[in-house]
Request: fold
Amino acid sequence: MKTLTKFFTGLLAVMLIATPNFLQAGDDDGFKFGGAVRYNIIHTNYESDATALSTQMTWDTWRLNIDGSTAGVDLSFEYRFYPTFGTHFIHHGYLGYSFSEDVYGKLGVFQKPFGITTYASHSWWFQGPYYVGLEDDYDMGLGFDFNPNEQLEVQVAYYRQAEPEGPVYGGDVTFGNAGAGRYSYDVVPQEGASVRELNTFNGRVAYKLNNDWEVGGSVQFGQLYNSVLEEAEWATAFAGHLVGNFSNFNLKTEYIMYNYAAKGDNGNDLDMIYMGAYGFPYPVATEAALYVAGLAYSIPVDIGPISNIQPYVDYTLIDKTNEDFYDTHHLIPGFLITAGSIYTYVDLAMGKNQPWLTDSFGLGLGQGVEDPDWNTRFNINIGYYF
Reply:
């Protein structure tokens, strides 16, 4: 850790010295350095009785960003640190190039074109698809964006593998939480299920009905490779979405169905696979349908530095195909406070069989439990972006 700290201290010093030289007025080429720091204030009310540790203030994350262009080739890079979870990892890092006004290519780690982009959610908590790897997911590959006109957007991408993983302190290097040091949820190997993602293809089409509404569809298919069997099964996901603005409202709706077909090391079909992020893996049902809806209302204000308040409610139902499994409910009412580049999310996160909102971390997206109570976490996330 001392070596890593010295490296990034030196990097920050170079950034401060070099930035004035990179950002010269009138130059087409240039690089911009930025980042963010975010803090959480938490109060949990899960299955067990509250304790003195049910209320905490934590340092959520800090990050470094580099964006720029040289000779027409773009660079976008972001690296994140999560002190609370004891891990750090790349968020994205890719090279981009405009082949024409209508075609843009990316190479590296970038967001998968699937469903509602950039986010299907309004809250800090994302929506349910994030927790099964189908919202704001990043992998390593090659992609193209096609914009033949102002109404139509077509995106295609191929990903050889999941994004590079960061360290997980105290984890089992073979199984346990190995492979889970990452930003977005991907399949990770576990004992008896040596499975990982390979050769994933994504396609997404979105059409703007007018300036306020967008309708679209997405497909994803790829291999879940078992390194013990040296065999792969094909996993699939499909999505349809509708996003719209009317008056000061914003509506996001989405339907997703997925089948993460995979075999265990004994050759049998799996009814659960493990997915991991932030240093923690958990079981996920291999087949389910997701019903996603979110509504937000923007209120312009002039209260000191505050320029906007946006109340919202986000909800996802995860309907698992296996009749012996129990559904997941993800409900987040809250509001976003905007003050310049400071964004504060105030959320009352509620869940039934939601993997993070429980004393039994991670179990909710697998079999889950029958007739669970609503668990809640009051969460204030304050982020300063620069």
Notes: Confidence is low (pLDDT under 50) at residues 1-27, 171-175. The radius of gyration is 21 Å.
